[in-house]
């Protein structure tokens, strides 16, 4: 369970249904790591109609011991639920990646020296 979940809406009316979707997806993140101290989610639309419909931006800030994971996803779609889904999918990937690095599952790449080809 996420210790602190904060949901904000900018330039878009608050929606209980969207909040429920965000809570559901935040709970799924807590199944990946039970060390999430805080999850701040901001859903906004620029109001600019570059395409038909709205362009939604979803920002997710995850705070875990020793790190903060920040994601911004802009989604040119009329469906805010797709924008939320894509942002949380990206957050899950980043969280898993962070966990693998913390555990040492992923090797750090060493700087490779430039090798010269032998002269002919």
Describe this structure in words.
- This protein is of the alpha+beta class.
- The chain has a single domain, classed as 2-Layer Sandwich (Double Stranded RNA Binding Domain).
- It contains two helices and four strands, in the order E-H-E-E-E-H.
- Strands 1-2-3-4 form a four-stranded mixed β-sheet, with helices on one face.
- Helix 1 packs parallel to helix 2.
What's the helix and strand layout?
Blueprint: E1 4-10, H1 16-32, E2 38-45, E3 56-64, E4 67-75, H2 80-103
Helix pairs in contact: 1-2
Q: The CATH topology, please?
A: Double Stranded RNA Binding Domain
- Distance from N terminus to C terminus (CA atoms, Å) equals 64 Å
Number of helices: 2
What is the CATH H-level superfamily? Answer: Ribosome hibernation promotion factor-like
Integer average pLDDT: 83
Which percent bin holds the helix content? 25-40%
How much of the sequence lies in strands comes to 25-35%
Which spans of ≥5 residues are poorly predicted at pLDDT below 50?
110-120
Sheet/helix structural class: alpha+beta
Order of helices and strands: EHEEEH
Shape: globular
Q: Count structural domains.
A: 1
Rg, rounded, reads 19 Å
The overall strand count is 4
Major beta-sheet overview:
4 strands, mixed
Indicate the CATH class: Alpha Beta
What's the CATH architecture? 2-Layer Sandwich
Biggest sheet strand order reads: 1-2-3-4
